[in-house]
Input
Amino acid sequence: MPGTAQFASILYALGAFFSWGISDFVGGYAARRFNSFYLAALGHLSGTALMAGLALSNHEVLPPLSHLRWAFLAGACGGVSLALFYRALSKGNMGLAAPVSAVLGAALPVGFGMFTEGLPKALPIGGFILALAGIWLVSRPEDGRRPEGVALAMIAGFGFALFFIFIKQAGNGAALWIAASSRGSALLAAGAITLIGRKFSPSYPLGYGLALLAGCIDVTGTFLFIRASQTGRLDTAVILSSLYPALTVLLARFFLKEHFTRWKTVGMVATLVAVPMIAAG
Output
């Protein structure tokens, strides 16, 4: 892999890290007073509109249907998983739900990437291990009980893993169209569940704006992840972008005054140290 391309992939993945960290905080906060599937559907609507509008304005060529099928599959998995994830975040402690989902969402694609693309160098492997350990420490229960939302976060993490793997299979076509297609599929999946189950309440006026905002920020992260996976290794893109719980936890600590324990601090430091180790590959 050429060094320039790999460096670009790392920058894209870090961009996804920031986007997803912020969008998860906004969505998780809104989901405390808003139905999670309705919230996700609104976010997918704004995300689809944003990516499709950018693709049209940039005159990007629509990828072949064989590639878009993978984007549709990725979107269906990611769309439902995001709604479950928002519900997990709304259950109480974002600092637990976000990392648990990220660990599962990262582990499977990393294993898949190593299997299909070969093992990276020793230093990035050490960074992968340190990053996963850091995420686990952030999510580590410290009162002997499994906190609320962890089961939902685990299910969401599995769905996110499938999203990462499927979106990589969508190929190197126009990333804006791939993002728009995956988000359109997510809209259909989450929208159908919302309509069939009549999942429109609870809701509140500000929640609509937060849902649309979270959707735009989240799909920006999706676009950046697609570019990261197109220009570099899947495992590197997944691990770096999956460090987003660190940002979600920091935002929850700063704005919501969530408790930040010693082990969470250690985990946060571990994830930050892992970034340059992974980038060195």
Remarks:
- The chain has a mean pLDDT of 87.
- The chain has eleven helices and no strands.
